[in-house]
């Protein structure tokens, strides 16, 4: 193409990663489809979508996972109803949940960063720690932003958000169990293992 | 096929370029932060209603955009009435609803493809940092195409689970799903490589 893209070639995402990023963005979307339910009083719905974010982080690694979540959010912003509960469009970025969405990107990065350092076969406890920290990141960004957007005091917002904690803990456990299962069946699902294999070739 | 919330009409708003609408929306959202007094909130709300009318949007379609806020509005109203007063409560809530409604209006009057094209154009200054707009649009199309494929894999896994009587087991659902998704992704990656994507 132009000189610009030639100069930028070294930083280009390889086709294999590009495909993984695209397909995992779709996975995050599909995990938001079934059985999304809202709790009374706090309309940020609880779904498997955050599980998708944790899984993406643990399997793709920090940078690719963050990119995947960004891509997913770009599709949502473009108007596709991919967010939990069939929501989509620019409205969600003007609403109270926007902090949680930003948190998704960072959480995927944090989970990926930790799991990448867990070796070619990170143990379940390792992924669990990563998942819990990732979930904490989502809340740490989501709750203050929600309080800011809605004008509801931070203390009250925190109390309203306590309902998330059991679900988040369960999802982190689920992520740990699923990721270790997947990495046993498909060794390339561990970021460190894939990097090592590609380096040999 | 996956479609957005776009409603096909032939209004002035529909004909405006996506980039113009996005920029106007950004400016409006920043301006809304400065809106505090009840009268200015009233003006902003009235303006939003006029814009929706201008776009030829029906009540049902407008409601679908702000419906996710309904519980928030209730909580904010209750909490704000308790800590402040009615006028502050109503103006804060209306401000939020107006912001979401305006963003929703852009979604309703702009085709998904046009919004994606506008986003890609917005990314072109990042070319210097190594972002290739052609790859961005490819990865977006691949993701959209992958949604029905991944949903299909999920359906297969769910059927297999039901056959084994393991409907409630998250592990029995997610492990085969993620492995299937990875296989599909890596096959897709090889296909892209075979077409010279890495050359």
Structural domain count of chain B: 2
Shape by Cα distribution of chain B: extended
Structural class of chain A: mainly alpha
User: What's the number of extended β-strand segments of chain B?
Assistant: 0
End-to-end distance of chain B: 32 Å
CATH class of chain A: Mainly Alpha
Task: Characterize the main sheet of chain A.
Answer: 2 strands, antiparallel
**Average pLDDT value of chain B?**
88
Gyration radius of chain A, to the nearest Å?
17 Å
Keywords (chain B): Membrane, Transmembrane, Transmembrane helix
GO cellular component, one term (chain B): plasma membrane
Subcellular location (chain B): Membrane
Protein name (chain B): Energy-coupling factor transporter transmembrane protein EcfT
Structure description:
The complex is a heterodimer of chains A (201) and B (199). Helices cover 70% and strands 4% of the residues of chain A. Chain A has 201 residues and is mostly helical. Chain A has a single domain (16-200), classed as Arp2/3 complex 21 kDa subunit ARPC3. In chain A, helix 7 (124-150) runs antiparallel to helix 9. Chain B has 199 residues and is mainly α. In chain B, 77% of the residues lie in helices and 0% in strands. Chain B is extended and about 60 Å long. The interface between A and B is large, with 70 and 78 residues.
């Amino acid at each position: 193409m132009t000189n610009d893209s030639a100069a930028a070639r070294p930083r280009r995402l390889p086709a294999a990663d590009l495909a993984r990023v695209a397909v995992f963005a779709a996975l995050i979307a599909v995990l938001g489809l079934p059985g999304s339910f809202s709790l009374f009083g706090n309309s940020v719905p609880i779904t498997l979508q955050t599980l998708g974010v944790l899984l993406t982080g643990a399997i793709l690694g920090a940078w690719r996972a963050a990119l995947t979540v960004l891509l997913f959010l770009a599709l949502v912003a473009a108007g596709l109803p991919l967010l939990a509960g069939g929501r989509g469009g620019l409205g969600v970025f003007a609403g109270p949940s926007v902090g949680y969405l930003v948190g998704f990107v960072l959480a995927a990065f944090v989970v990926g960063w930790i799991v990448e350092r867990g070796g070619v076969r990170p143990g379940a406890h390792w992924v669990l720690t990563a998942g819990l920290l990732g979930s904490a990141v989502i809340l740490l960004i989501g709750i203050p932003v929600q309080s800011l957007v809605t004008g509801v005091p931070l203390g009250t917002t925190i109390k309203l958000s306590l309902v998330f904690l059991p679900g988040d803990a369960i999802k982190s456990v689920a992520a740990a169990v699923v990721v270790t299962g997947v990495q046993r069946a498909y060794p390339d699902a561990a970021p460190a293992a894939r990097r090592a294999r590609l380096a040999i070739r | 096929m996956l479609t957005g919330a776009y409603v096909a009409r032939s209004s002035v708003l529909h004909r405006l370029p996506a980039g113009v609408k996005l920029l106007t929306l950004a400016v409006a959202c920043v301006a809304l932060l400065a809106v505090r007094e009840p009268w200015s909130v009233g003006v902003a709300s009235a303006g939003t209603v006029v814009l929706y009318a201008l776009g030829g949007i029906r009540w049902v379609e407008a409601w679908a955009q702000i419906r996710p806020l309904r519980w928030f509005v209730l909580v904010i109203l209750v909490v704000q009435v308790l800590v402040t007063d009615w006028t502050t409560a109503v103006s804060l809530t209306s401000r939020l609803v107006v912001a979401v409604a305006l963003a929703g209006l852009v979604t309703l009057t702009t085709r998904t493809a046009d919004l994606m094209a506008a986003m890609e154009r917005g990314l072109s200054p990042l070319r210097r940092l190594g972002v290739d707009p052609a790859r961005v649009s490819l990865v977006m199309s691949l993701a959209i195409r992958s949604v029905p494929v991944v949903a299909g894999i999920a359906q297969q896994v769910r059927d297999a689970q039901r056959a084994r009587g393991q409907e409630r087991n998250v592990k029995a659902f997610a492990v085969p799903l993620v492995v299937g998704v990875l296989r599909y992704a890596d096959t897709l990656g090889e296909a892209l490589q075979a077409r010279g994507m890495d050359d």
